[in-house]
Amino acid sequence: MMLVALLLTGLVALLHVYILVLEMFLWTHPLGLKTFRNSLEKAQATRVLAANQGLYNGFLAAGILVGLACAQPLLVTFSLVCVVVAGCYGAWSVNRRIFLVQAVPALLALAAHAAA
User: Fold this and answer.
1) Going by C-beta distance under 8 Å and a sequence separation of 6 or more, which residues neighbour residue 5?
2) Which one, 59, 63, 79, 98, has least CB within 10 Å?
3) Is 62 a domain residue?
4) Number of domains in the chain
5) Do 59 and 71 meet the contact criterion of CB atoms below 8 Å apart?
6) Is this prediction's pTM over 0.90?
7) Per-residue pLDDT for the chain (116 aa), expressed as one digit of tens each?
8) Measuring CA to CA, which residue among 83, 77, 79, 80 is closest to residue 99?
9) Which contacts qualify for 67-74: CB closer than 8 Å, 24 or more apart?
10) Which 3 state secondary structure label does DSSP give 36?
11) Cα separations in angstroms, 78 against 23, 47, 94
12) What is the DSSP letter of 29?
């Protein structure tokens, strides 16, 4: 069960690295526009805000990865809870789909850690 927990946690970290790349570097490119359902005009106007969001997603990934690398379960748990909170807020304030994409994988990872 611990292997499942580690794999799910690693996938959450990779997801947030991917989100970092989308928001910081691909926001105004076709993949970023399609992913976030933005027009080019809106994306250009919000580019700096998106980069800031991307940076925060990178911090979430870093917390998870450092926690895993240093065998610090409390840091991993804290980072996963932060991901859940961010996913819930994003679902409430932007789009419910964010809950499924961001919070659910982190909740599954937390459940797997609790069961391990």
Assistant:
1) 109, 112, 113, 115, 116
2) 59
3) yes
4) 1
5) no
6) yes
7) 799 999 999 999 999 999 999 999 999 999 999 999 999 999 999 999 999 999 999 999 999 999 999 999 999 999 999 999 999 999 999 999 999 999 999 999 999 999 98
8) 83
9) 68/6, 68/9, 68/10, 68/13, 73/113
10) coil
11) 23, 29, 23
12) S
Q: Tell me whether residue 15 is in a domain.
A: yes
- Cα–Cα dist 47/109, whole Å: 31
* Domain region containing 107: 2-20+55-115
In a domain, 31, yes or no: no
Nearest alpha-carbon partner for 50 in 71, 75, 80, 29: 29
Q: Which residue has 């990872």 as its token pair?
A: 109
Between the alpha carbon of residue 89 and those of residues 19, 31, 38, 55, the distances in Å are 16, 24, 20, 17
Q: Is residue 28 part of a domain?
A: no
